[in-house]
Amino acid sequence: MTVTMTTPTPAAAPAGKSIASLLGGGSPGSARRLADSGLWDRQRQFYQQQAQTLWGTAMVPHGITGNPRIAATYARLVVEFLRSVPAGSGRPHLVEFGAGSGRFAFLLVRALRALAPGLDFTYVATDFCADRVAGWAAHPSFHPLVDQGLIDFAVLDADRPGPLELLASGRTLDAGSLDGPVVGIANYVFDTLRHDSYAVCGGELHECRVTLPDLPPGAPASALGELTWDLADGPVVPPELSGVLQFYADTLDDTAVLVPTGGLRCLDFVSELTTGATCMLVADKGHCRPVELCSQPAPSVVPHGNGFSLMVNFDLLARVVRERGGVAVLPREPARSLVVAAFVRAGRDGGLDDPERFTAWVQDQLVDTGPDNYFTVRSLLGGGAAADLDTMLAGLRLSRFEPGLLIELLPRLLDVLPTTPDATRGEVERSLLQLWDNWFPIGEPIDMALCLGLAFSAMDRFARAVDFLELSVKEHPDSAPAAFAMGVARRGLRDLRAAREWAQRAVTLEPGFGQARVLRAVLDEELDTPLDSSLVTPLDTPLVTGRGR
Ligand SMILES: C[S@@+](CC[C@H](N)C(=O)[O-])C[C@H]1O[C@@H](n2cnc3c(N)ncnc32)[C@H](O)[C@@H]1O
Q1: pLDDT (tens digit per residue) in 155-174
Q2: Could you read off the pLDDT of 477-517 as tens digits, one per residue?
Q3: Could you count the other beta carbons within 10 Å of the beta carbon of residue 426?
Q4: For the chain, domain boundaries
Q5: Radius of gyration of the chain (CA)
């Protein structure tokens, strides 16, 4: 999407129209305040229409914010925040905005429970899209957490944040409902919510208005083509932003500056919920320092499918929070893909016991194993063709057992597992079970149960393999690889008749499946001439893995 910016002259307002009339709306195609422009209707439609199917596609990036590594880091940040502020009388609540697939909520609740087993808390996953929220409530992976009272779900529209009607418990959370600390979480959400835009030009502040090309409603965001930005004099600046915008006018070069108005509303919503202290954890791509805000020719609007995202102005968020007496923690080191920041506000009984210590602690976590570092080095954990088992296990541990990493490592793992010494097999087994525990399906075309079944078969743990393969064949009844893997595992258990049926099923489903044919032939022989099981030669590794067809 290319963007043009016109020169800042009073003529930017169409002849005969006052700036005030532009602010009030006008016909499509006219320049509007960014926060009032039709861009946000498109955004809402995009996220509404694809409620259940969006996350199985690569349209909206979510891997960096939906893995066990980021959940483990957030769990530590949450526990440290709760340790550092007055406990209040109620249990802590966590409220996630725009929780998307729900995968992060699932992982964080489990990471928190593991890190602080005695901590009583309620996690509320929210989104503005009611179908998405209903989808989480129906997701089987959430049911045990709901039964334990650890998680609940609510519709929350950041454009009009109102009371949270919790689906599972039936409770309502409104302004002042809570007395304990509250943690807000917004991953890849502030960049999606409403923004305003201003421009600094020759040390003067202007409002930056946008004109959309005239497009049919369903046109993809990339078809927006050229947005036109016009500058208007006499900008309307909300009082709470006047200090920071004046600072920008005084210090920045000629540049466009974004104001995350939707994000600021989320910060307010969280602190209004409780009389206790609050901490908002925000992860997004964005700008942290004034120098990063310089020389932006126009706001950068990046299309994702039919939606879009903007760079989040973390510098502004931090200044606003500090002006109000809060503590803003930005990362110490530059982030390549994802800035994670913490914004803390004190409650009635006080705030952080030691703000400097908390700041240093959060920054240290982010430098150590923060999501940005993890995302950047993750490709190195993929193993490669010659990786040994110890390296792969270390990578899985470092990822906090990310199922996606197992998929990348699986081909090499299946090579080395058959010769793994017994002493190590127990460790591999524990790792595989942790990977399975972290699996939260969101509609990706991945058969995780098959991956686990293959890995257990490769270690001759056939009973375990069958447990997983039962899930695989139930979920994917037309999968020839799953049927074949079940044949191999059943044969490993010396259940030759069942193995023969599964081999036959694999051939029926995929007549050209050579290894399934070989397995069937081997089983025919074994069924004709039953042997002492201890004398039966195990099938070759390729048959076990089901690869190389
Ligand atoms: C880019 S996705 C991020 C999803 C998830 N947090 C993640 O990291 O993968 C943006 C999310 O914000 C939600 N959203 C969009 N507009 C919203 C609004 N006005 N209020 C609340 N949520 C909104 C979308 O439905 C979507 O779930």
Answers
A1: 999 999 999 999 999 999 99
A2: 999 999 999 999 999 999 999 999 999 999 999 999 999 99
A3: 10
A4: 383-545
A5: 27
CA distance 225 to 214: 10
The rounded mean pLDDT for the chain is 89
CATH class of the domain whose range is 383-545: mainly alpha
CA distance 196 to 44: 17
Q: How many angstroms separate the CA atoms of 358 and 154, rounded?
A: 30
According to the model, what pLDDT value does residue 530 have?
A: 61
- Is residue 32 within 8 Å of residue 209, measured between CB atoms? yes
Q: Is 245 in the pocket of ligand 1 (CB under 6 A)?
A: no
Is residue 244's pLDDT more than 50?
yes
CA distances from 500 to 110, 462, 488 (A): 40, 16, 9
Q: Which atom of ligand 1 is nearest to the CA of 96?
A: 6
Which sign does the torsion angle of CA 219, 222, 228, 232 carry?
positive
CA of 373 to the centre of ligand 1 (A): 23
Q: Is the CB of 159 under 6 A from ligand 1?
A: yes
Q: Tell me the torsion sign for CA atoms 393, 458, 408, 103.
A: negative
Q: What is the DSSP letter of 90?
A: S
Ligand 1 nearest atom to the CA of residue 99, by list position: 6
Question: Nearest 5°: phi and psi at 210?
Answer: -120, 140
Distance, in Å, from the CA atom of 470 to the CA atom of 514, rounded to the nearest integer, reads: 23
E strand or H helix at 5: strand 3-5
Q: CA 542, CA 392: separation in Å to the nearest integer?
A: 20
Say if residues 205 and 116 touch (Cβ distance below 8 Å). no
Ligand 1 pocket check for 308: Cβ under 6 Å? no
Token output for 190:
């502030």
